[in-house]
């Protein structure tokens, strides 16, 4: 921004950074990847345009930035010529790899580059070329823990992709990219019930932008491949509370399905319905389950029927029809057990145990949860273990053992910290609020309820989503309000809402007092209501055009909002915004 201000003052004497133009200037700098030459060229445009007009027109940066200082070398007169010059200084091999890596979104790791970009190159040739591109500042080397990733600035990526298109190989490379990320998602799904689960979650987080890129390409190129990716990502999306994103992809890809039902299409309907349940969208979930029933009405495939039975049982559970829930889930469990599928067994034992517990059959509930825990603990799994510990805590609490219930809920929270699941954290915080009131601490109960509501709202859900548990929420909220008084209850609830993921869990585990002075809370308050809407849509993976269509605004206005969000939050990419939205309660 300092460079922009200096060059702007040279172009337009008297120009200075002010509170009014600082956000716009920051948006320009972010849009230009912080590169000095493009920033200088943009500043020169102030002779004829305002900062706001420059930001609006930066969609095609090469056209806009066509004039720099007349005294500069020809190669530095325009952004395009500058990058052309850099490209010409590269060897043929470097030019080839520059174009190929442009299919990656944001950044990538060596194994992905080897598979997607390595055709025709020797064993060490690709690595050597990537290294030389780093040395020439075309790629940026970044360390993520023990992993090295390569990032390409968006300006250079667009240029590289244009060169790739000129070779006629763009579609082939994008298919290789899609195939690689399909294999990655399937591998993560296959190893979900294992000690590698947290490693897979971390990898998929790092690859989030590339997974979205693969899905976007598949929608028109190969919807069946896209559906396979989306089905495999169900566990990841669910673990991170990415329900809106998952549901959007299922909507798009299922709409392109035709012909008899396939395993992937039925799994997608099941996954879609579970995500709708998790957000309390019973109407949409009901429609999806009915569609699954209709599509499989004539099938004799027991596996397809088992998925529908499972979805039907979940519908009954969330609707409060506990007898039907137990019946349908038992049928599905028998099929999955016969097949020896531990992932599906664990996925069903959790809601089945919950249905038994809510029906008053706590012994059967505990048996289901302990069976699930036996599988998950043996394999070092984390996510489903946290689910089962929460549900087991509810069951033993209903038996009257509040102390054991608290220990189980706290164990669930310890695991939830590792997975970083807002959904499970909210459920645990809510249950601990009930226990706190029973222990005569209404203030703590109100704070925990607020924390649960805050996390749930961050993923488009509610703290309590099971019909048969809502009465407890209402009862303890009413009792806490009565004991504290309306103002004190609301103040404690607001404090809890603002805690965020990490602080809320630390408070629940008695590791620290409630403290809302977190960077995420401060950042959230800086965004306007419309900017928060746009940030949520970025997290769903929408493009600027799609955001504009959704909010009924112009694409340029949508782009302006995106740039303002990046500037206010200090981010450089949409991926960072998406991660912040998902974790804004705990970043």
Automatic annotation (TrEMBL):
> Some GO term, biological process aspect, for this entry: which one?
regulation of DNA-templated transcription
Q: Where are the TPR repeats?
A: 346-379
Which keywords does UniProt give here? TPR repeat
By its UniProt entry, which SUPFAM superfamilies does this protein fall under? C-terminal effector domain of the bipartite response regulators, TPR-like
What stretch or stretches form a coiled coil here?
none
Q: Which CDD domains match?
A: LuxR_C_like (cd06170)
Concerning SMART domains, the annotation shows: HTH_LUXR
Alphabetized InterPro entries for the sequence = Sig_transdc_resp-reg_C-effctor, TPR-like_helical_dom_sf, TPR_rpt, Tscrpt_reg_LuxR_C, WH-like_DNA-bd_sf
Q: Which residues form the HTH luxR-type domain?
A: 520-585
**Single GO term (MF):** DNA binding
What Pfam families has UniProt attached to this entry? Answer: GerE, TPR_12
PANTHER family from the xrefs?
HTH-TYPE TRANSCRIPTIONAL REGULATOR RV0890C-RELATED, REGULATOR-RELATED
State what protein this is by name.
Answer: Transcriptional regulator, LuxR family
Q: Which organism is it from?
A: Rhodococcus opacus (Nocardia opaca)
């Amino acid at each position: 921004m300092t460079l922009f201000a200096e060059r702007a003052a040279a172009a337009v004497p008297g120009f200075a950074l002010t509170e009014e133009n600082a956000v716009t200037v920051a948006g320009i700098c972010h849009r230009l990847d912080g590169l000095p030459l493009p920033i200088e060229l943009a500043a020169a445009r102030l002779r004829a345009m305002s900062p706001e007009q420059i930001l609006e027109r930066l969609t095609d940066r090469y056209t806009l930035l066509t004039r720099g200082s007349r005294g500069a070398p020809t190669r530095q007169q325009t952004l395009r010529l500058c990058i052309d010059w850099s490209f010409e200084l590269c060897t043929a091999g470097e030019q080839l790899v520059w174009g190929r890596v442009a299919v990656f979104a944001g950044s990538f790791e060596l194994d992905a580059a080897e598979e997607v970009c390595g055709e025709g190159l020797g064993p060490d040739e690709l690595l050597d070329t990537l290294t030389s591109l780093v040395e020439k500042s075309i790629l940026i080397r970044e360390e993520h823990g023990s992993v090295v990733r390569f990032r390409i600035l968006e300006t250079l990526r667009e240029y590289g992709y244009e060169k790739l298109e000129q070779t006629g190989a763009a579609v082939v490379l994008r298919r290789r990219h899609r195939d690689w990320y399909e294999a990655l998602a399937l591998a993560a799904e296959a190893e979900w019930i294992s000690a590698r689960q947290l490693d897979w979650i971390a990898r998929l987080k790092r690859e989030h932008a590339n997974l979205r890129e693969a899905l976007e390409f598949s929608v028109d190129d190969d919807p069946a491949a896209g559906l396979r990716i989306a089905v495999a990502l169900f566990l990841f999306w669910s673990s991170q509370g990415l329900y809106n994103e998952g549901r959007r992809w299922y909507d798009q890809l299922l709409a392109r399905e035709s012909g008899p039902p396939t395993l992937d299409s039925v799994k997608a309907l099941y996954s879609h319905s579970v995500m709708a349940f998790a957000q309390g969208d019973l109407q949409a979930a009901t429609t999806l389950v009915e569609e699954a029933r209709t599509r499989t009405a004539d099938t004799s495939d027991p596996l397809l029927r088992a998925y529908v039975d499972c979805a039907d049982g979940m519908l009954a559970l969330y609707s409060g029809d506990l007898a039907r829930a137990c019946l349908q889930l038992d049928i599905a469990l028998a099929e999955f057990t016969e097949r020896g599928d531990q992932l599906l067994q664990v996925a069903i034992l959790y809601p089945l145990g919950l249905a038994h517990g809510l029906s008053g059959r706590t012994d059967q509930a505990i048996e289901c949860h302990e069976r699930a825990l036996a599988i998950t603990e043996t394999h070092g799994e984390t996510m489903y273990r946290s689910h089962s510990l929460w549900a087991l805590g509810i069951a033993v609490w209903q038996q009257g053992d509040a102390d054991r219930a608290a220990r189980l809920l706290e164990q669930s929270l310890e695991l939830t910290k590792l997975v970083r699941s807002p959904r499970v954290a909210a459920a645990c915080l809510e249950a601990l609020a009930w226990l706190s009131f029973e222990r005569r601490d209404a203030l703590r109960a109100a704070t925990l309820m607020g924390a649960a509501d805050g996390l749930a709202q961050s993923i488009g859900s509610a703290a309590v989503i099971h019909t048969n548990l809502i009465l407890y929420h209402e009862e303890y909220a009413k009792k806490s309000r009565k004991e504290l008084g309306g103002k004190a209850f609301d103040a404690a609830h607001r404090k809890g809402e603002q805690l965020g993921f990490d602080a809320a869990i630390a408070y629940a585990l008695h590791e620290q007092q409630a403290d809302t002075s977190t960077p995420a809370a401060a950042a959230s308050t800086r965004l306007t209501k419309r900017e928060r809407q746009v940030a949520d849509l970025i997290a769903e993976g929408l493009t600027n055009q799609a955001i504009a269509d959704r909010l009924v605004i112009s694409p340029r206005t949508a782009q302006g909002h995106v740039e303002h969000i990046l500037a206010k939050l200090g981010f450089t990419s949409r991926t960072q915004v998406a991660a912040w939205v998902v974790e804004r309660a705990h970043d």
